[in-house]
């Protein structure tokens, strides 16, 4: 996917990033152009708690990709231009007292493969992409026989609902997060779901049993050539009815009708090849993409001091994180 198309993806839009702003946060944008070449970045800029650096008078900040995907992006293949842009980017961050940045790269962002540009770089996991250019019967050829049979049975027993009530979703979402012992980050406040629900490119879709009970539901971004499977939840007492299979199948049909060419399903809960969520998603496509995370140090000494300060207060915890100081006890 070319960079100009990718910049129109939902994850590179201010409207999406605003969903994750806390009271003192703001959106940080950087852009550098030279002729027809451009380099752009969108991040969330957050103040760092000052108790972590009590002997420093100025406020420090860090950057983070909004939840999902993003990262700096360019339409150029010229490494000299890219290096020049990165140097200017680093200088701008230093001038703004930004210590470091944590990046979650979009799987279609070609800059993600340039490990040498970053101070930390890792393929964190793999994600599943579903091709929507083909007709449904062709897409089904990539499914296992078991998956096809499950969907056929669902077609006879379940119904697709495009008008799920938000409170219904939140109820089963909370149950799903509890079951999975999810990170505290994923326990979004109701206000977040309300904003997500009213986003112009987001749809809350669900599957119901014939008795009307909600079995599975999820938020999907359907805009432009690339669709996304964002957040989902399942009725834990009725998982055997396989509403999650039928939800994805119906979302594919809806996204294709909306003009989307592919849908990113994301990866698993962990980086393990045996992760059950990844294995479920991989039943729908063999198109697997790498998902990279990366870090930029604008003041490596300061970041080390922040991490060391955090470690002093968590001496029993040994963990490797780029922004360790951002961890709370619930993250450990």
TrEMBL record:
It comes from the Bacteria. InterPro entries: Acyl_CoA_acyltransferase, PG_Glycine_Bridge_Synth. This is BioF2-like acetyltransferase domain-containing protein. SUPFAM superfamilies: Acyl-CoA N-acyltransferases (Nat) (SSF55729).
């Amino acid at each position: 996917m070319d960079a100009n198309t990718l910049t129109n993806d939902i994850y590179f839009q201010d409207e999406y990033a605003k969903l994750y702003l806390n009271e003192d946060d703001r959106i940080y944008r950087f852009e550098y152009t030279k002729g027809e070449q451009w380099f752009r970045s969108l991040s969330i800029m957050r103040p760092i708690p000052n108790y972590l650096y009590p002997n420093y008078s100025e406020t420090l900040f860090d950057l983070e990709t909004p939840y999902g995907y993003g990262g700096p992006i360019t339409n150029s293949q010229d490494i000299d231009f890219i290096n020049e842009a990165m140097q200017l980017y680093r200088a701008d961050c230093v001038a703004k007292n930004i210590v470091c940045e944590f990046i979650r790269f979009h799987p279609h962002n070609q800059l993600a493969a340039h490990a040498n540009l970053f101070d930390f770089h890792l393929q964190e996991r793999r994600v599943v992409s579903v091709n929507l250019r083909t007709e449904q019967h062709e897409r089904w050829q990539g499914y296992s026989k078991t998956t096809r049979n499950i969907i056929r049975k669902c077609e006879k027993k379940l119904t697709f609902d495009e008008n799920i009530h938000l409170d219904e979703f939140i109820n089963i979402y909370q149950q799903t997060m509890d079951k999975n012992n999810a990170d505290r980050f994923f326990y979004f406040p109701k206000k977040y779901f309300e904003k997500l629900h009213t986003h112009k490119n987001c749809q809350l879709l669900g599957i119901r049993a014939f008795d009307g009970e909600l079995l599975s539901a999820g938020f999907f971004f359907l805009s432009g050539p690339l669709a996304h499977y964002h957040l989902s939840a399942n009725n834990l007492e009725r998982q055997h009815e396989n509403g999650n299979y039928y939800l994805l199948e119906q979302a594919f049909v809806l996204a294709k009708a909306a003009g989307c060419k592919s849908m990113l399903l994301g990866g698993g809960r962990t980086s393990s090849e045996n992760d059950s969520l990844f294995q479920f998603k991989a039943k729908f496509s063999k198109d697997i993409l790498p998902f990279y995370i990366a870090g930029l140090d604008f003041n490596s000494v300061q970041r080390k001091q922040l991490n060391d300060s955090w470690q002093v207060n968590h001496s029993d915890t040994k963990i490797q994180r780029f922004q360790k100081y951002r961890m709370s006890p619930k993250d450990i």
